[in-house]
Protein: Nitrous oxide-stimulated promoter family protein
Amino acid sequence: MSDTELLTGKLLFEFRTIEAMVTIYCKVHHPMKPSHGVCEQCCEFLSYANTRLDRCPYGQDKPTCNKCPVHCYKPHMKQKAREIMLFAGPRMLLPHPIMAIKHLLAERKPAPGLPPEGVSNRHERKRQMS
Structure:
């Protein structure tokens, strides 16, 4: 099962947005990457981001990460995400205008309260399997 098969709906859109940002970042910062996709370091970051999205306690109602009261990224990965987003965010408008605008609009939503129990994407998949 590939990483993106785990996610659906808003979480899949969020992953694709992160993936687009990482691709923009990697193209400039890691020029010695393979001819396809992103370098191994960025691929590892994407895999980590996918896992974090799958286990997000908000599930499909996930806020943007910088508005979220739950800090689920490890500190060094959070710093890496911040670095990628600060670089690639402004550069998203030309290659991915719809993604960029949707992400900007999502950032304007107020921060939610604490998440309800058992609504993560991972919990939903487990319920469907049983």
